[in-house]
Amino acid sequence: MDRVRVYYDRQGNTLTVWFDDPRKEHVCEEIADDVVLMKDRRGQVIGFERLNYLSRKLHDEGANVPVEVQVL
What are the DSSP calls for 7-71, one per residue? Predict the structure, then answer.
């Protein structure tokens, strides 16, 4: 996949990032409080989700969230 898909669900207050096709999702694994990895059938991470992404104050006021991209 050549692109990363990023979704913010304002109502659910979640940030979801896909590195591959979301239809390949086979299993999810919570790795820390409010962090879930989505994996394909081979166990490769194809995305992650951050629950409770913004604090209520930032959520109500709007927020700019910096994103850093590293190309390997």
Answer: EEETTTTEEEEESS-GGG--EEEEEETTEEEEE-TTS-EEEEEESS-S-HHHHHH----------
Q: What does DSSP say about strands 14-18 and 5-9: parallel, antiparallel, or unpaired?
A: antiparallel
Determine the distance from the C-alpha atom of residue 64 to the mean position of all C-alpha atoms in its chain, rounded to a whole number. 16
Q: Are 35 and 45 in contact (CB under 8 A)?
A: no
Q: What is the pLDDT of residues 19-56, one digit of tens each?
A: 999 999 999 999 988 999 999 999 999 999 999 988 65
On the question of pLDDT at 59 being above 60, the answer is: no
Tokens 């194809």 locate to 46
